[in-house]
Specification:
The protein is mainly alpha-helical. Helices cover about 65% and strands about 5% of the residues. The protein has helices spanning about 10-35, 55-60, 70-85, 85-90, 95-110; strands at about 65, 65-70.
Length: about 110
């Protein structure tokens, strides 16, 4: 299968926004991963409020096949960051666009 080259480039705002949001996702996922393995009480939201972050991050639902969701989120965020780097946007390779779209779809599905 031959790799096709895109004829259009994404707008600059889309490239900048996707990179910025990917870095925010890495920061949040890193924080959640560290708190999962260290002190879940250190989370930003209180454990006495309507939304109980400690209960959510320490429940049996927060681990899939022995892997904490925070770690899976961190892996996803790092992959998205790689796919939104300037080289990825400029590459023109169709597989990069497909990988970016698949990763976005997977991330959205996991959130739902």
């Amino acid at each position: 299968m031959a790799l096709s080259i895109r004829s259009r480039q994404a707008p600059a705002w889309a490239m900048s926004a996707s990179m910025g949001l990917s870095l925010v996702a890495v920061a949040i996922a890193s924080y959640l991963t560290v708190t999962h393995y260290s002190d879940p009480v250190a989370l930003a939201c209180p454990d006495t409020g309507i939304v109980n972050c400690t209960l959510v991050t320490t429940s049996s639902w927060s681990v899939v096949l022995g892997v904490p969701l925070a770690v899976l989120g961190l892996v996803w965020a790092v992959a998205m960051t790689a796919l939104t780097l300037p080289w990825a946007w400029r590459s023109g390779a169709a597989w990069v666009d497909r990988a970016r779209l698949a990763a976005l779809g997977t991330g959205a599905a996991m959130v739902m």
